[in-house]
Amino acid sequence: MTQNRQVISTDKAPPAIGPYSQAIVANGMVFCSGQIGMTTDCEIVPGGVEAETRKSLENLKKVLSAAGTSFASVVQATLFLKNMADFGAVNAIYAEYFPKNPPARACVAAAELPKGALFEIAVTALVE
Description:
Number of domains: 1
Distance between the termini: 23 Å
Structural class: alpha+beta
Order of helices and strands: EEEEHEHEE
Number of strands: 7
């Protein structure tokens, strides 16, 4: 069985801050690494959880695009929150990006996220 694996990297989203790829395409699926509300200069955006959530989703949009897909093809999402009290605010922004037929999802509280982030999202999508 031949395996097909393609590393996805775009300079339109923040670079990996460790030994990982922004995304991997394999067998018609896109596996995206977690995105936090970070600029391409590796700085967390100011403005709290709402600003970080929006930036994380915009970063994810760019990675998905580089992989040849979009939010419409996301099948599973995992959200990480520093504080579950932010669940409502995050959900409101998340719903803007997944307005119809949202993917399966898990949301967990994390004691700490990279670079002190308040929000992180990782997804799996179909290649369009």
